[in-house]
Amino acid sequence: MSLQVPNRNKSGAGKTTKAVVLVGGPSRGTRFRPLSLDVPKPLFDVAGHPIIEHCFRALAKVPEIKEVFIVGYYEEHVFRDWIKDASKAFPNISIKYLREYEALGTAGGLYHFRDVILKGNPDRFFVLNADVCCSFPLLEMLKLFEEKDAEAVILGTRVSNDAASNFGCIVSDAHTKRVLHYVEKPESHISNLINCGVYLFSTESIFPSIKSAIKRRTERPRLLSYPSSENLESTFAAEREDEGEKNEVIRLEQDILADLADSRQFFVLETKDFWRQIKTAGSAVPANALYLIKAFQNQSEELAAPSATILPPVFIHPTAKVDPTAKLGPHVSIGPRANIGPGVRIKESIVLEDAEIRHDACILYSIIGWGSKVGAWARVEGTPTPITSHNTSIIKNGVKVQSITILGKECGVANEVRVQNCICLPNKELKRDVSNEVIM
Amino acid sequence: MKALILVGGFGTRLRPLTLTLPKPLVEFGNRPMILHQIEALAHAGVTDIVLAVNYRPEIMTAALKKYEQEYNVKIEFSVETEPLGTAGPLKLAEKILGKDDSPFFVLNSDVICDYPFAELAAFHKQHGEEGTIVVTKVEEPSKYGVVVHKPGHASRIDRFVEKPIEFVGNRINAGLYILNPSVLSRIELRPTSIEQETFPSMVKQGQLHSFDLEGFWMDVGQPKDFISGTCLYLSSLTKKGSKLLTPASEPFVHGGNVMVDPSAKIGKNCRIGPNVTIGPNVVIGDGVRLQRCVILSGSKVKDHAWIKSTIVGWNSSVGRWARLENVTVLGDDVTIGDEIYVNGGSVLPHKSIKANVDVPAIIM
C-alpha cells in the first residue's frame, strides 16, 4: 500500500463529517418482491417510517453531520418527495440524491461522486447501507475513530457460527479492536463477528484505496469466485451480469475492506445492540419489531398507549381507524387510513395504508399490502422464526417456503379463508385456503 | 317386545372421546347415542333391552338405571368374556331374547337414523318368515355388502354380494334387524358373524327379507362420520320442524340446523351454523364463528374463535382467535391457546396446546 498517512489532529474538534446512504437500485431489490413491485425498498414503511428514514434519524443525532448524500441508481423522482419531507424533519441536514447511471458497485459509486463528497474538505464520512436495520451507534463509532486515530471504523456484530458465512467476516484483535483480517462470505468458518454494513472512513485514506483497487482491476481483471451456496442465488447472478459490463464495478465489501485490513488503522466497533438485514420482503417484519422495541425503550410518543387491547409496542398511524375491540400487538404497525374492524387480532405484522381488516379476522406474522382487504374470520398467518435467525425462509415438507405471509398491493382474502406462509403478488383474490405457496 | 344392542368394545375408533366416556354415552345431538336407540325402541313397545358389551363400565350401569325408569324399560347387560362377533352375543342372550315367541330387534350401536321399529315389526309380521334386515340405499355400493333380491320379489333376499365391482344393486345392510327367536337355534355360542354366517344360511332357505329405510342413515363410529351424521340428523330435525332446534330467528343462527342447549350462553356478534350442536353449560364468547361442529357440555369457546368440522370434547377451552378445522377432535378438558391453529388434530384429554398443529396429528 502506498497510502500516505499525514499527521492528523488528535482531537476531534473542528472536524467535519458527512454521510452517504447507499440505497442500490430497482434491479437490486428483487428479493424484496412483491412489496418492491409497488414501492422502492428504501421507502417501505417499517415501524411507521420508511426504511431509509431510520438511517437519517441516527445521522441527525450526530451534530457535526450537515450533509448527507443518498447514492443509488433509482430514477431521480423516486426520492424527490421523501427528500422534501425529510428536509423539513431534519432541518440541520442537507440531503441530496446522487444517481449512478450505471451500477458502479458500492465503492465505485462513492469514487464516482468523490468530488461532491469531498467538497468543503470533510475529514471523514459515514457510509450506511440503507437495507440495514440496527441502532446505528454512530457516535460510538466516531469516538472509537478518534481514540484510535483510525482510517476506517466498521460496525460489527456477533451472529451464530452457522449464519456467519452469509456475511462479511471480521477477525479482530479483541484488545485493540484492530481489524486483522476481512473475508466477504467465506466458505469456511473464520469468525462470527460480521460486517454490519455501516462504516466511517477518513476521506484521506478511502479514496486512494478505491483508486488503487480500480488500478489493480484494470491491470489484472478480478477472478470471480463466490462459491458459498447461500450466495449463489443472490450475488452470483448479479456478478454474472456485471462481467459483461465495464470493470468499474468496485464493491466496498469484496474489493476494499480486505485491503484495508492490511493497513494498521482499520478498527471494528462491536455492537451488542440489535442488527438485521432487510433483504427479503419478509425481513421487514422482524425489522419492524426491532425498531418498535427501540422506540418503546426510548418512550417514543409516536407509539400507541398500552391498554388491554394494545400490547406494546404498537404503531398506529393517526389516520388509521382501529375498532376498540380489536387487539393489536406486540410488534404491529398500522399504516395511514387502514381500517381495523371489531374483534380483529393482529400480532407481529405490518398493515399498510388503506388496507381493511374486517371483523374477527386474525393476522399473525404477516404483511398486508396497500389497499388489501381481509375478510371476516379470515386468518392470515406466517410462522414465527427465532428472533436470532437471519433467515426468513423455513423448510416445510422438504420445500423452502417463506415464513412470513405477504399480501401485495390490493389483494383480497375472502371471509373465513386461511392463508399460511404464502406470498401473494398484487391484485389477487384469495377465495380458498392456501398454504406454503407463491400466488402469481 | 325385546331388543339387543350390539355395543361391543372400547369404541377405539371414536377416541379420544371414548377415553373419557363409553361410546354409547357420547352425546350425539346433545343426547347420549344409546338414548336415541332406547327411546325409539321404547316408543315401538320394546320392554326388554339387552346391551351386548365386552366390558361394563360403572358409569354405564348408573346411566342406564336412569333410563330404565325414564322409559319404563328393563335394560340388562350381556357381558362377553371373549369377543363373540356380531352373532355370538345373540346366543349369549338367548334366555332373554328367547323367553317368548315374539320377534326381537337387533341393532348396531353405531348406527344413527330415523329408527323405523314399529313399521319394521309390522312388515316382519306380515311376511311371516324368520328375519328382516333394514337396508339403506347408498350412492357407492361398491364399498359395502350389497343385498340382492330374488327375481321378481320386492323383499325376499336372494344373496349378498360383498364389495361388488359391477352394479348389482344399491341396497346395503343398515345394521338393524328383526328376527324370530327361532334364529337363535341357528347360532352357536362361539365367535361368529351374523352377516357372514347366520344371514347366508337364512337366505338359502328363503327366510330373510329386506326392509327399505326412509331418510338418513349413518354409521357414526368414527369422528369424521360422527360429524357427518350430526349434519344428517340436524337436517332431518329441520325437515320435521323439530322444536329441539334453535329457531332461525335467533340473530346468531346462520344457515339453520343449529341445536343449542338452553343452558348454553352465546356471546354477541356470533355466526353459528349450519350444522352445529352446542351442549349444556357451554359458553360461547363474542364474535365466534361455528359451523359443522359439535361442542360438548361444559366447554368454553372464547371470543373470535373459528371452528369448523370439529368435535370439541367436554370441559375444553378454545382460545381467542383460535382456528380449528378438518376433523379436529378435542378430548375431555383440552385447552387450545389463543390464536392457535389446529388442522385435523386428535387431542387426548387434559392436554394444553400452545403451538399450531399444521397437519393432522395425534397429540398424546
Overview in brief:
Residues 1-12 and 225-245 of chain A have low confidence and may be disordered. Chain A is of the alpha/beta class and 440 residues long. Classes of the chains: A alpha/beta (440), B alpha/beta (364).
The CATH architecture of the largest domain in chain A: Alpha-Beta Complex
Helix percentage range of chain B: 10-25%
Tally of helical runs of chain B? 7
Which regions of chain A have little confidence, pLDDT < 50, spanning 5+ residues?
1-12, 225-245
Structural class of chain B: alpha/beta
What does the largest sheet of chain A look like?
7 strands, mixed
List the chains of the largest interface with their residue counts.
A-B, 20 and 16 residues
GO molecular function, one term (chain B): mannose-1-phosphate guanylyltransferase (GTP) activity
EC number (chain B): 2.7.7.13
Organism (chain B): Aulographum hederae CBS 113979
Protein name (chain B): Mannose-1-phosphate guanyltransferase
Polypeptide structure, described:
- The complex is a heterodimer of chains A (440) and B (364).
- Chain A has 440 residues and is of the alpha/beta class.
- Chain A is built from 10 helices and 34 strands.
- In chain A, the strands form 8 sheets. A 7-stranded mixed β-sheet of chain A has the order 5-4-1-6-11-8-12, with helices on both faces. In chain A, strands 14-17-20-23-28-31-34 form a 7-stranded parallel β-sheet, with helices on one face.
- In chain A, a hairpin with a 2-residue loop joins strand 2 and strand 3 (49-50).
- Chain A is globular, with a radius of gyration of 22 Å.
- The relative contact order of chain A is 0.11.
- Chain B has 364 residues and is an alpha/beta fold.
- Chain B folds into 2 domains: 2-219, Spore Coat Polysaccharide Biosynthesis Protein SpsA, Chain A (Alpha-Beta Complex); 253-362, UDP N-Acetylglucosamine Acyltransferase, domain 1 (3 Solenoid), CATH 2.160.10.
- Chain B has helices at 33-43, 58-71, 88-92, 94-97, 117-127, 194-204, 223-240; strands at 2-8, 27-28, 31-32, 48-53, 74-79, 104-108, 111-113, 131-137, 145-149, 157-162, 171-179, 208-212, 217-219, 258-260, 265-266, 271-272, 276-278, 283-284, 289-295, 300-301, 306-312, 317-318, 323-325, 328-330, 335-336, 341-343, 345-347, 352-353, 361-363.
- The longest helix of chain B has 18 residues, at 223-240.
- Chain B is elongated.
- The model of chain B has no long low-confidence stretch (mean pLDDT 91).
- The interface between A and B is medium-sized, with 20 and 16 residues.
